[in-house]
Task: structure prediction
Amino acid sequence: MNAIVVVGAGQAGLQIAECLRRGGHSGPLTLLGEERWPPYQRPPLSKKYLGGAVADERLFFRPLDYLAKQEIEFRASTQVVAIDRANTRVLLANGEQLAYAGLALATGARPRMLPVPGAEHPAVCYLRGLEDAQGLLVKLAAAARVVVIGGGFIGLEVAATACAAGKTVTVIEASERLLARAVAPIVSQYFADLHRTQGVALQFGAQVTRLVPLAGGGLSVELNDGTALPADLVLVGVGGLPNQELAAQAGLTCANGIVVDEFARTSDPLIVAAGDCTSHINRRYPTPLRLESVQNAVDQAKIAAFSLLGLAQPYQDLPWFWSDQYDVKLQIAGLSQSHDTAVVRGAAVSGAFSVFYFAAGALVAVDSVNRPADHMLARKLLSAQRAVTPEQAADVNFDLKLLL
Amino acid sequence: MPKITFIDVDGTSYEATVDAGLSLMEAAINVGVPGVLAICGGSCACSTCHAYIDDAWATIVGGPNDIEDATLDLANDRRSGSRLTCQVTVTAAMDGLVVHVAKND
Result:
């Protein structure tokens, strides 16, 4: 008996299952998904999908018969209600029990709810899964006035898509700038200018106090400064929370995510975890990370699979991210939060520039706006921990490839 | 429908018959071609769907735009026929196209 069960059929769960098969696991392998679709891509949901350009099937990672051919037993619409660690079984909502020799948790994250009165109104939407996106697509088509709460990636991507569809869009952000947790002020400013040029209204330092239904349909979004914004649709993008309850109830250590070591192992040696749901160790960084990204889902899933295969290797991949808004591509390599110095390569007014971040003289991250070559180069420089000086980074005539 | 042949790094062939309008990346994914990872889902952000178009097809398939060109610039082992398959839209004229998958990681 060497059955492996993977809980969660998103990008991380699929990757774990595929790596297990490719890595030589020949025993039973079950992939359990709560949603009714096969594993699918989430990044296009706030972009092309919401723009109406993508059929549901084109989001699926693999053709329907692929998992069966790999002898991966995929079960959709399947909820796991408990992990019985003492008897090494998972309990399903339908009463069934699945025994495991190894268990992988890839339970993902969910949107943080807006904690204000009136937020249960049907015009208030969140965006995480395909079902959310389908609902949002229908509501967006019928809406004229859209209010986006939260100037992060999800909020801004939806704002861009809604604006491109001709909607009147307002973004409400609690801090003083967009993408405040992710990028430097110059990048925030670039995106603020971009959205305003496209016709999106931005309100900073604004707290939503309550949502009040309007007589003619829609909502009034009331702010702490007394402003009231009428909206046919409210999209809330105020961060995500890790789906750690299943693990916590089973007694696994959780702290802002399912806690795993650099080998993606939880506090139970038979159980690994990967992706958005984990608080994890990456050898590049001194403190635990919780990242919601494709890169982390894919790379950490491989680490989790290797651990289950008995081939443990440490997680040390470079984090990277991207966002598409209008025809602008933002790409981020590394984590900039620790920086003490930032220099710009190129000019923001040109619409193509990168910001290089340094901490104690070492390059730690690069944000690139419409400079994909900088991004790819940055990933190579950061992965290889090459020495780059702020002067070299800021000089567009200096060929950074020479440093590879 | 156009038929595309993908050849992976081990030399194994995969035949994909696809609707025009899909991307070459989607055509490869549909038949499970190893090495076409496409982890960004076709957003021209990751270069993990890199492949080589046979020279005979260069004119029909065409070359990369600026963003793809820059992304390809630092992909593994770029050659003259390099493309990101997510950026190539399959057309009826591509019936018979042969694509060699690059070593993506």
In short: Chain A touches chain B through 27 residues (CB under 8 Å).
